[in-house]
Structures are given as structure tokens and as C-alpha cells.
Write a structure and sequence with these properties.
mainly alpha
């Protein structure tokens, strides 16, 4: 009896080998990607703070100012709402808000609709600092970091970052339906990553989106 064709004999083994090879390549690529994301987050905190340090700001404060300066936040943002927007814990956010309030950049007033809640708003001096001093330097920083990027490059990078963000949200809150990450999130909160605790045992946070 003639033996089966060589390709037929090897096909199960070859298929398994190809699947294994593809899995190994995917993990190797993911490892490189996530390590670069980690490096970018650290460098954003380091170089972003340097960009606005003359104004007495950090990337954490940059994130908060950008969030509460949006037209959508003109009424003010509740602390829980702000924490969800920036995707950080309330505990980590509270210390930053306290320092900014003492510096005169923010005011925290009782919500007239819910006295148990506080609304975070920009003060007039905080708005002036943000609009006339911080934003021009932040925009110059963007130009430096995105040197060599075309509009299409930036749009593609944003698209894929939003896909990663959406999947991370599903891991963070698996029992909740997550809407797609918002491509229209405001640009002022680029320092939100720096608010996150570095300890792996820190409390999980829930949020909707991260402003790029």
C-alpha cells in the first residue's frame, strides 16, 4: 500500500507549529509594545513636568487643569466624576486637588444639587495661568514630542491607543458594558497617567476615558 503524501502526513504537526510560532511572535511583540508604553508614560511625567515647571505645575496638575477647563466642565466637576474622567483613584486625586486649592488654582465648593458632593472649579487666577502661561508651553511640548509625525501618523497612533485603552477598561470593570473610548476626549489631561499609583496592590479605579 502506498504511503500518504508527505504534506498530508505533516499537516497536523505543521499547523500546530505555525500556531505556536504565531503565538510566540505575538507575545514577543506585545512585550515590546507594553514596555515602550511604560517608558512613554515615565518620560511623559518627566519631560512634561519639565515643560510646565516654571509655572509651578506638574503633569498631575496639568491633567486636572485640562479637565476642569473644558467647556463641558464649566459648572464644575464632582471629585468622583473627575477621578473617573482621568481614570485615577479618588485617593490619589485628593492630594493633588488639595495642593492646587492651596495654590489658588482651584476652588472646591459644595454642589447645590447634592450637598454631600464637592464641585471642582478653576479660579480666575487658575484659568489665567492655564490659558496664558501653561497652554503655550504645552503646545510647544506637543510639537517637540510629535516631531516627524504627520496628521495621519497622529490619527493612527490615537486610534490604536484608544483600542488598547478600551480593552484595559474591560479588564478593569469586566461586569460593566464599556462604550468605545472617546476619540473626542479633550487634550488638556495628558498628565493623568502620572496620578496612578505605582504599587501593584493599589485600589482599582473606574473611569470612562483618558484625555490624550
Amino acid at each position: 500500500m502506498p504511503s500518504p503524501p508527505q504534506a498530508a502526513r505533516r499537516s497536523p504537526v505543521s499547523a500546530k507549529t505555525l500556531v505556536d510560532q504565531e503565538r510566540e511572535a505575538r507575545i514577543a511583540l506585545a512585550n515590546r509594545l507594553f514596555f515602550r508604553l511604560y517608558q512613554c508614560a515615565n518620560m511623559l511625567h518627566k519631560t512634561g513636568t519639565r515643560a510646565v515647571e516654571a509655572e509651578g505645575l506638574t503633569t498631575q496638575q496639568w491633567a486636572v487643569l485640562g479637565a476642569v477647563s473644558r467647556p463641558a466642565a464649566a459648572r464644575g466637576m464632582a471629585v468622583n466624576e473627575l477621578a473617573r474622567y482621568l481614570m485615577v483613584s479618588r485617593q490619589n486625586l485628593s492630594g493633588v486637588l488639595g495642593r492646587m486649592e492651596r495654590a489658588g488654582h482651584l476652588r472646591c465648593d459644595s454642589d447645590p444639587e447634592d450637598r454631600r458632593s464637592r464641585l471642582v472649579r478653576l479660579t480666575p487666577s487658575g484659568r489665567l495661568l492655564w490659558q496664558t502661561q501653561a497652554l503655550p508651553k504645552i503646545h510647544a511640548y506637543y510639537d517637540q514630542v510629535l516631531d516627524g509625525f504627520s496628521i495621519n501618523d497622529g490619527a493612527h497612533a490615537l486610534h490604536y491607543l484608544l483600542k488598547i485603552l478600551h480593552n484595559m477598561q474591560r479588564i478593569d470593570t469586566p461586569d460593566e458594558d464599556q462604550p468605545p473610548a472617546d476619540e473626542d476626549a479633550e487634550a488638556g489631561a495628558a498628565g493623568a497617567a502620572a496620578l496612578r499609583p505605582r504599587s501593584s496592590g493599589s485600589r482599582r479605579t473606574r473611569g470612562r476615558r483618558l484625555a490624550p
